[in-house]
Amino acid sequence: QQHSSLYFVNNKSLPSSSLSSWNIIPRGGQQQSQPPTSPTSLKLSLLDISSTLSSSVTSSSPFLQYNLVILAINFVGMLISLSFSGMQYHLDLLGTGSFALASAYIMLTQSLLQTQVLSSWAIIIWSTKLATFLFYRAMKVKEDARLGATLSTKQGVVFFWLLSFFWGVISSLPHSLGLAAAAASSSSSSSFSLNGGNNTGFLFLGTFVYIVGLFTETIADYQKWTFKQTNPGQFCNIGLWSISQHPNFVGNICIWTGITIMNLPLIEWRLVPIACLSPLILWRFFLGQAQGLVGSGVDLSMKKYGNDADYIDYIENVPLLFPDVTFSSKK
Fold first, then answer.
1. How high is the pLDDT of residue 151?
2. Using CA atoms, how far apart are residues 177 and 267, in angstroms rounded to an integer?
């Protein structure tokens, strides 16, 4: 669906497509054939964005349906956590797995463009891979000390699953907005997206960044898991972990950056900044975790390895996220 600027008629806002059957009356009372020029163009731009977003949130919108599936799965996870206090096996299985289930549901119920099929499969592959690994790890480790305090109270449980839901919604913004734009474009012949919808270059670049991220995250998780099995009680500083303190975070950021790039040609240009919030917020969130501003991971690591001189040297000289060859998030 094409969204143009809004015009004000009898104190109501209507899409420009409806102007043919309405008289436009300016404040002076004289009828005119063109909309009056308003000095508040910024306000109109915000109204344009609001109108565009509103059109995505309808009962039949794939944007809404996708996020409702994520909401439903996280709600089930919350009920399980409230019913079985302290149990952690299901956390990532449902929280991370909700991405795959939501994407699969949309693929089964909607007619998608090639870009959206590729984006959906990208999410399904990543979500299934990560949820399976984290479920396996939870079965072996039994308990994640970082979540013990949070999940010990009902308020903490509700907070955890609300955060999980919002993580799903925000991370998926480029994909879910792309779904809405693809559905809208099927009923409109007008071009409203970046690059006029010509997305071949975006697909190749986005897929490349996604694959780099997927391999980075997978290799990082495998290296740390195998290291911990053979070196219990030691911190991991091999492989990718020798050039980044959190290479798995780097991989996740690249995954969603790639998915964002894939979807950019489909998303209306006014919503592109909103779609880009996905990798940007993830980067800030992961950086906050790495710096100890979010969660208790840094404090727990210091308690465990703080007396190890090699660990102190490691955290002082190895970048938190991206290696120095790109841009460093080093302290």
1. 77
2. 6
